[in-house]
Specification:
Elements: E1 3-9, H1 15-23, E2 32-34, E3 40-52, E4 55-64, H2 66-74, H3 77-86, H4 99-109
Antiparallel strand pairs: 1-4, 2-3, 3-4
Organism: Streptomyces hirsutus
Pfam families: SchA_CurD (PF04486)
Domain SchA/CurD-like: 1-118
Length: 126
C-alpha cells in the first residue's frame, strides 16, 4: 500500500499546542474513500503526524487514487477543524477552506516518494 506525506511550515516552539490539536482529531467512522459518483475510489488505512522544529509532516497510508483521497480528506469535518486550528501556527498560509483549495495545497505540500518498503510486500515464503 502506498504512503503519501504532506508538510506544514509552522512556527517553532508550539509542540504542546500542535500535539493537542492532532491529539483531539475526530476520526471518521469509515476508511472508505468515494469518487464523485459514490463508487469506492480507495481507503485511508492509517495516518501519522510527525513534528520537529518548524516542520510538521502528515503521513497517510492509503489504497486507490491519491486525488480522491485528498478530496475525501478535504470534506471531512475533523480535517477541516485541524486545518482551522493550525492557522495561527503556520508560517506560510494554507488555502484549505474549500475542497479545491485543500486539494491544491495538498499537491503543493506533497513530498516526493523516494522509497516505500513494507514487510507486507515480501512473499510469505521468503
Amino acid at each position: 500500500m502506498p504512503f503519501a506525506a504532506i508538510t506544514y511550515d509552522i512556527k517553532p516552539g508550539y509542540e504542546k499546542e500542535l500535539t493537542e490539536i492532532f491529539g483531539n482529531f475526530r476520526r471518521v467512522p469509515s476508511s472508505r474513500v468515494e469518487d464523485a459518483s459514490g463508487g469506492q475510489a480507495g481507503t485511508i488505512v492509517a495516518t501519522a503526524v510527525f513534528l520537529r522544529d518548524d516542520t510538521l509532516v502528515r503521513v497517510i497510508e492509503y489504497t486507490g487514487d491519491l486525488e480522491a483521497v485528498a478530496r475525501h480528506m478535504a470534506a471531512q469535518p475533523g480535517v477541516q477543524e485541524v486545518e482551522r486550528k493550525l492557522k495561527p501556527y503556520l508560517t506560510r498560509p494554507r488555502e484549505t477552506d474549500t475542497v479545491e483549495g485543500f486539494v491544491a495545497t495538498f499537491r503543493r505540500s506533497l513530498l516526493t516518494t523516494v522509497a516505500q518498503i513494507s514487510a507486507r510486500d515480501v512473499p510469505a515464503s521468503a
